[in-house]
Amino acid sequence: MIIDNYLVRSEDHYHILFRELNFKFNKRMIILMRGELGSGKTTFIKQLLAYKHDFHNTSSPTFGLINTYNTQNKLIFHYDLYRVEKESELNEIGIYDNLEIEATHFIEWPEVIPSNLIKPDMIISFETMDAYRLISIKR
Question: If DSSP codes are grouped into helix, strand and coil, which group holds residue 135?
Answer without folding.
Answer: strand
